[in-house]
Amino acid sequence: MSQMDFVELTSWDALQKVAEGEDPKLVYFSHHRCNVCRGLKPRVRQLIENNFPELMLYYVNTLEHPQMAGQFSVFTVPTILVFFDGREYIRESRHVSISSFQQRLGKLHRIYFG
After folding, report:
1. I need a surface site. Which of 16, 40, 62, 110 has the fewest CB within 10 A?
2. pTM for the complete prediction?
3. Spatial CB neighbours of 88, under 8 Å, sequence gap ≥ 6
């Protein structure tokens, strides 16, 4: 199995286009100085790769692009946003439980993909 990777978004236009797109996706907001973020990111990638490979993974560095985070009301890191059909369905911030996140995402995934 190939390893998925996060595509870094560096402009407001790119982030908006991703969020509004029909394809399911996950956007991970964090920065390199956040230890929790660095530990969680590979676990999220592995979860998506193993269980929800249809989701595209995106990353926003909130230190380099604080305005992008602000436009989506992201004021703490890590924050994970999950979009289906151009709508935000899941928002997890700060203390993210992988098992709880997997359950929530699994329910949404079953509704979307049948």
Report:
1. 110
2. 0.94
3. 19, 81, 82
Place of tokens 């790769």: 49
Q: What is the pLDDT of residue 1?
A: 41
| Alpha carbons 94 and 106: distance in angstroms, whole number | 20
> In sequence order, which ranges of the chain are alpha helices (DSSP H)?
12-20, 35-51, 66-71, 98-113
| Average pLDDT over every residue of 39-46 | 96
- The answer to whether 28 and 60 are in contact (CB under 8 A) is yes
Q: Token match 């989506």: residue?
A: 72
Domains and CATH numbers, the chain: 7-113 (3.40.30.10)
